[in-house]
Amino acid sequence: MVIYLPGTVEDTPQLDDLTPRQIVQELDKHVVGQAAAKRAVAIALRNRVRRQKLPPDLAQDVMPKNIIMIGSTGVGKTEIARRLARLANSPFLKVEASKFTEVGYVGRDVESIVRDLVDIGIDLVREEKIAEVEEKARQNAEERLLDLLLPTRREGESILPEDEAAFQRTREKLRQQLREGKLDNRIVEIEVKERGFPSGIEIITPQGIEEMDINLRDMLPGIFPGARTKLRKMSVGEAIEYLTQEEEQKLVDMDQVARLAIERVEETGIVFLDEIDKIAGRETSAGPDVSREGVQRDILPIIEGTTVNTRYGMVRTDHILFIAAGAFHVSKPSDLIPELQGRFPIRVNLDPLTKEDFKRILTEPRNSLIRQYVALLDTEGIALEITDDAIEAVADFAFTVNQNTENIGARRLHTVMEKVLDEVSFAAPDMEEKHFRVDAAYVRKVLADIVQDEDLSKYIL
Ligand SMILES: Nc1ncnc2c1ncn2[C@@H]1O[C@H](COP(=O)(O)OP(=O)(O)OP(=O)(O)O)[C@@H](O)[C@H]1O
Ligand SMILES: [Mg+2]
Fold this sequence. Notes:
- This protein is an alpha/beta fold.
- The protein has 18 helices and eleven strands.
- A hairpin with a 2-residue loop joins strand 6 and strand 7.
- The chain is flat.
- Magnesium ion binds at residues 77-78, 274.
């Protein structure tokens, strides 16, 4: 087990420090099976690290080793990518490649991928920085609140030393009460910043929404007044939260955050390009859609490595890792334009899930579906027990329904479990008996009729 001490953000193991073997081990905690895919993403990541270590002139010639995951719906493609990003603090963005072909999105600027990724990086780094200054911010907020509760004398007024001492004693007493929460309901008046940006107004320009907030305030000072303040009454409990947040904003150096975020994106960013199969194809179709080949050509520079201008600065995309995924039922990876194929040299197939996989998915992952339901019902004071043979039955039904209707992979487990626990989910707060047992017989009783009737299962499961 790794223990993180506060204030040692630098020590957080970066995803890039993990060996491929360690990455696979970590993924195993959340994703069942799919060994080949886990191995492939681990290799892709390691290749990025290797390329980063090369002298720049050589690195330039080594093509990025991105990855394509091929597998039908609900077998864990997104889950693997998501877990990978969470492993360490990589900025992670998931986009549907088909977004760029949709009517209304015609010509949607693919550079928005990088801008969005930077926004995510900013949030990530800002949160880390806020965690670092949290304590200091709380102290400052406390001092400000004490100033409010017990105003100091006006300037120039002469004070006797004993008055000063008494004043300090009172202040410390108040501090004690404040910390114990005894003042929480008292009302104070706090100077708050007015929201400068009227909510509910969205402005869409040819460049897209993302570009807009840069100059609006400068351009339209009348509509968006600057940081004006007003007095607001609130309880001490609320005030300490408000002031802490304000102090956090003050203590965090946003220029530094921006710099670090860009660095983080450039070196560890991951873009998950879903539904890549939908843009595979080389025909130039006429019509309202952007041609698929056109989209591939648009995306290419970002994957090859280019510089994108964002509102936080220039971002080089050379080392951003791209993980593409698709079912490839109709098209094949070889239908992608050659340049793009070259940028995705790692290919991996995900296996269809078996009954046995379903059983493991229900129980093994850290936050498996079963654990989730047990925890949810526990909030109602109900002890949910799901027997092994019930799990077996659920896996079995899910598998059968997938075969008979549409194969939606592990997502079927969600619909089946929801149906199995329908009764207890509804009645939980009113139940006298605080123990609820689900065994195979119960599962069959709830599901048998539905599963047998194919039409019915199409609607219900
Ligand atoms: N191998 C697996 N191990 C654990 N959970 C899984 C696995 N496969 C799928 N799941 C679960 O099923 C759900 C759907 O999986 P996921 O989003 O990864 O599907 P996908 O392969 O990306 O499908 P799509 O092509 O439709 O996007 C998630 O809740 C995920 O946790
Ligand atoms: Mg997916």
